[in-house]
Specification:
single chain, mainly beta, four-stranded antiparallel sheet
Length: 373
């Protein structure tokens, strides 16, 4: 499935990966930005996020970070015991990057976690956790409560699930249900209206397994991907957008072969996806299809203006409006959908490099935030 899965078990360890040279890291961190520096602006900078509240290094690996629209709240998965996880088991942290306040989420437990999703204001975090049968959850930071998301009348055989996307204010949740039997793992795609508690089936067993989904700001539109991308010619992967108000369904990758969904814009107009080794943006209003980069994307801002691209030289943030790009993270960096703030001013990513910030000696993958200014 498209989302990063973080598995663990008692006593498990994580490889730190190859270190990046100090010169390369500094060059990346200080590379040109989408907005030229001025006397009134700050130069781009990289800060480490996956630390204890007193700044102590994490004693385990961290991955799969997402960030709120204003760049203030970040959620990520970690195995670090000194960040609040139980011995050997992953957990999720939600950090206020201004105050340093941390919420550790363990509800659902187990050693199976998938990349989280976060609402625009950082109040709600959707996540998936469990052992043999992971389930989708919605965590409310204001109340401190986590709610298991499950339809009143689930399809026959459904036993596990995963959250894939939250609308801007957390009023809608896109999630999948399935079971352990091969492709049935991601068979059903639903959208939950949190105000009414109702669940709408968007795609069922009549379509191939689902691999990802993305919601518009108000939850009216949902983009989703069927099938999986691989070297197997029998694998088919397509991207669709459904208008939940009208029922209209559009395939956005026709003629491009296998495609991988990245994100639907807040207004439901633009779809960012990968195909044929590059990144495309489809304008659903005009029908225009634009190949914007010859490298694949990992994430995008909610307005689809800023695209986080991944190439041999690492992560770069492309401004589609100006055509300018900025180096964000070194080669080998990891990022997931939801890693870019609303205006592209902040990006969260994971890296095992030990010279992005001073004093990185834990030998583990950490979460960093890149700030353009």
């Amino acid at each position: 499935m498209a989302a990063r899965v973080f598995r663990g078990r008692p006593g498990a360890s994580v490889s730190a990966g190859a270190a990046i040279s100090l010169a390369s890291a500094l060059a990346l961190a200080l590379a040109s930005t989408a907005v030229p520096a001025t006397a009134a602006s700050h130069p781009p900078r990289v800060e480490r996020v996956s630390t204890a509240t007193d700044g102590t290094e994490a004693d385990g690996a961290s991955t799969s970070a997402v960030i709120s629209d204003d760049g203030r709240h970040a959620a990520f998965l970690t195995r670090a015991e000194n960040l609040g996880c139980s011995a050997g088991y992953p957990c999720m942290q939600v950090r206020d990057l201004v105050t340093g306040a941390v919420t550790t989420v363990r509800e659902g437990g187990g050693f199976w976690w998938a990349a989280p999703s976060i609402s625009g204001d950082g109040r709600y975090v959707g996540y998936s956790a469990g052992s043999k049968l992971p389930a989708p959850y919605l965590h409310d930071r204001r109340t401190g409560q986590s709610q298991r998301i499950w339809p009143d009348v689930p399809p026959s055989g459904a036993e596990l699930g995963q959250v894939w996307s939250l609308s801007r204010h957390g009023t809608h949740i896109a999630y999948m249900l399935g079971n352990r039997n091969g492709p049935a793992f991601t068979r059903y795609l639903y959208v939950r209206d949190t105000a009414t508690g109702t669940d709408e089936l968007i795609s069922g067993a009549d379509e191939p397994p689902k691999a990802a989904a993305s919601l518009s700001a108000d939850g009216t539109a949902v983009a989703y991907m069927t099938g999986f991308t691989s070297d197997d010619p029998a694998d088919t992967a397509d991207v669709f957008v459904v208008d939940r108000a009208t029922g209209r369904k559009v395939q956005v990758d026709t003629g491009l072969g296998q495609a991988r969904l990245i994100q639907l814009s807040d207004d439901g107009r633009y779809v960012v996806f990968d195909a044929q080794g590059g990144t495309y943006v489809r304008d659903l209003r005009t029908g225009h299809l634009h190949r914007v980069a010859d490298t694949p994307a990992k994430s995008a801002s909610r307005d689809a203006r800023y695209l986080l691209l991944s190439g041999a030289d690492g992560l770069r943030l492309l401004d589609r409006r100006t055509g300018r790009s900025a180096a964000v993270g070194p080669a080998g960096s990891e990022a997931v959908p939801g890693a870019v703030s609303a205006k592209g001013r902040a990006v969260v990513f994971g890296s095992a490099a030990d010279d992005l910030v001073p004093g990185d000696t834990n030998g583990a993958s950490d979460i960093f935030v890149y700030r353009a200014r």
